[in-house]
Amino acid sequence: MVNGKFIQRLVTPLSPIFSQQRLISWTNRRLILPFYHSVSDDDLPFISNLYPLRSLKQFRADIEYFCRHYTPISINELEKYKMDKSGDLSPAFHLTFDDGLKEVYTHIAPLLEEKGIPATFFVNTDFIDNKKLFYRYKIGLLLEEIGRDENNAKALEISKIVQQNSKWHLDCRSSLLRLNYHDQEFIDELGDALGLDFHQWLQENNPYLTTAQINELIDRGFSFGSHSCDHPRFKNIDFDSQKKQIEHSFDFLKRTFEIKERYFSFPFGDEEVGKNLFDWMEKEANVGFSFGVSGLKDDYTLSHFHRIPMDMCSGQTEKFIKSEYLYFMIKRIFRKNQIHRE
Ligand SMILES: [Zn+2]
Fold first, then answer.
1. Non-local CB neighbours of 46 within 8 Å, separated by 6+ positions
2. Hey, where are the domains in the chain?
């Protein structure tokens, strides 16, 4: 199967030919939902070993571009866009941020307020107040530790342990990146083997938002939603666990912050999530909107929106957003612009 990102890269050089306005009217895609994890000028090794981050300067350029071509809207206004078939609505964008990281409070919110741009922050309820560290960030820290060791003795040590336990026969880095939600004990053991105390690291670095910061951001008008309790990949957990992750996190948000609206962003996206969960979310769990990470794409239900992963934009905002539109047009020719679910 041809990789979608490869096609998108292939069409990127065509992007200067078409104006953003023209692409919007050709595709009739008036709503875009750019999403980020964090934005930072500092190296955040727990993230940068996993995926790139936009700098503050790049983030400013992003929002300037969005504001030039789209109107910033709040999450409540998505309701009218989900039914938009007429093409009468003006182009709009809503910004979202996953994982509840502290830069949302220290850098992102002040910048957005300066420009009058609303946003929604999706948090993992188990991680608020730096109570627990996401297993994937632990892998990021392991990779950092291994990369820092000049003699590579630690890499060899970890390699040996990883490979003894691995079914993939890959190099150390790739094997570490393959570890999942069910390997958390093993990831902790690897930390111990490297003398890396995740708990201590968490206390010293405080990567997550605190309860006080969330309360303040709510008072300042930002919206919050759930990103599950502790960030499992949903295709790796059973239906009951999926429901518990959603229900428990919403209960926590209501109890702690009096958040009644139920917005949910799937951790790692919604790959292979079945219709049964979407039906349950809509009919029983009263989830208002949910969000995936597949760029410009339609889905099984109108209440589920796909967002554009801006962390993956390595250069100019304009090229990146236009290439999303061009890729959408290609997908539409082959009827691949809609996700089909079992
Ligand atoms: Zn996430």
1. 137, 138, 140, 141, 144, 207
2. 4-132+209-333, 135-203
Q: What is the DSSP string of 11-32?
A: HGGGGGGS-HHHHHHHHT--EE
Find the mean pLDDT for residues 6-26. Answer: 84
Residue 224, classed as helix, strand or coil, is strand
CA of 227 to the centre of ligand 1 (A): 7
Structural class in CATH, domain 4-132+209-333: alpha beta
Distance, in Å, from the CA atom of 241 to the CA atom of 238, rounded to the nearest integer, reads 5
Q: What is the pTM of this model?
A: 0.94
Could you report the per-residue pLDDT of 175-210, keeping only the tens digit for each? 899 999 999 999 999 999 888 999 999 999 999 999
CB within 8 Å of 104: residues ≥ 6 apart: 38, 97, 121, 209, 217
Span from the CA of 274 to the centroid of ligand 1 (angstroms): 19
Q: In angstroms, what is the span from residue 232 Cα to ligand 1's centroid?
A: 9
Task: Please work out, in degrees rounded to the nearest 5, the angle formed at the alpha carbon of residue 52 by the alpha carbons of 294 and 249.
Answer: 55
